[in-house]
Specification:
Layout (H helix, E strand, L loop, with lengths): L3 H12 L1 H25 L6 H26 L7 H18 L4 H24 L5 H19 L5 E2 L4 H8 L13 H19 L1 H18 L4 H27 L1 E2 L7 H11 L11 H20 L4 H25 L1
Antiparallel strand pairs: 1-2
Length: 333
């Protein structure tokens, strides 16, 4: 098979851009409808404090969702990002409060930790040929246990480092009255913009789509598909490290028991935003919209005093519906 086939495979999602665009429009319309419905049901929904709370809650889930978008586009899955995020937060807390390293070095420790375990997941999948579900489930349990071991099953607080909380809770627009958008939200959008450029404007992004569309064609064309697949997991891990920094800064502590369940919301955000679980399709913009849908839904149901167990049930039904619609869309193609 000629090497030009990789370009052809990578371009395949662009041929279906109209379907992807329709999915994004549908997701955005759903978000608007949800916001209107909740604002009519409760006068507290559209208050400034609640809208900022929605953006702040979306920041962590959204960053994780952006990272896992790359993995899902390759046709894989990562069930470890929630607990990996927690382990990254524990490692940055350990580096800053116990090892007394500079804060910038502590932040780098979190990102490098995420990249290391992302690389581990990628090697298990690409080189050892373990199913992504099993490999990342194992890494999930590994990082969950390591978080408890390193933190000695106790939270690590940043009490002596007040500047650390400003990473998430401060605002570079603090000098503007009534415009206190937390830094975590800005970091989320910066991560999303950079990731969108990587996905749509670089060779890495083209190979990510190509592997998800037809990995065998990529391999037969002479490209080392394993290397690019591992790269997707490494990038996902690095972004999980950023999420770990954000959540530790927001809580002003590293909570070693936290993290389980975040991967579900991140995957749901991707699927709702139009990323196909079969691989080969997806956009960062769609993922952002999906992340806001998840957060708005959770926030609105909480304001309406819907029991938490029913919130989980409703979210589960939405995920099932999104996957089913994706399946129908694939069949039509």
């Amino acid at each position: 098979m000629p090497k030009t086939s990789v370009a052809a495979v990578a371009a395949a999602p662009k041929k279906n851009s109209s379907a992807v665009a329709r999915q994004k429009i549908f997701a955005f319309s759903s978000l608007i409808i949800l916001m209107i419905a909740f604002s009519l049901a409760s006068p507290n929904f559209f208050k400034a404090d609640n809208l900022i709370a929605i953006m702040l809650a979306t920041a962590v889930t959204g960053v994780l969702a952006v990272g896992i978008t790359f993995v899902i586009i390759t046709g894989g899955i990562d069930l470890s990002i929630g607990t990996l995020m927690t382990f990254c937060s524990v490692m940055t807390a350990k580096a800053i409060t116990v090892w007394h390293l500079p804060i910038l070095v502590g932040l780098l420790v979190a990102i490098l930790t995420g990249m290391t375990f992302g690389c581990l997941s990628g090697i298990l999948i690409a080189k050892l040929k373990l199913p992504p579900f099993i490999a990342t489930l194992g890494v999930n349990m590994l990082t969950k246990g390591l978080s408890l071991i390193v933190a000695q099953s106790k939270p690590i607080y940043f009490s002596d480092y007040p500047v650390f909380s400003q990473i998430s809770m401060g605002s570079v627009f603090g000098f503007i009255k009534d415009f206190q958008i937390p830094n975590a939200v800005l970091i989320f959008f910066i991560v999303a913009i950079v990731s969108s450029i990587i996905l749509n404007k670089t060779s890495f992004g083209r190979y990510t789509f190509a592997i998800g569309s037809n990995e065998e064609a990529v391999r037969l064309s002479g490209v080392n598909s394993d290397r690019w697949k591992i790269g997707a997991y490494v990038l996902c891990g690095a972004i999980a490290g950023i999420a770990g920094i954000l959540i530790a800064s927001r809580l002003n502590s590293a909570q070693p028991a936290l993290g389980q369940g975040y991967e579900t919301d991140a995957i749901a955000a991707c699927v709702i935003g139009g990323t196909s679980m079969s691989g080969g399709e997806g956009t960062i913009l769609g993922t952002i919209i999906g992340a806001f849908i998840i957060t708005v839904l959770t926030n609105g149901l909480r304001i309406l005093n819907v029991p938490q167990e029913w919130q989980i049930v409703i979210t589960g039904l939405i995920i099932i519906g999104a996957v089913y619609l994706d399946t129908l869309r694939r069949k039509k193609k």
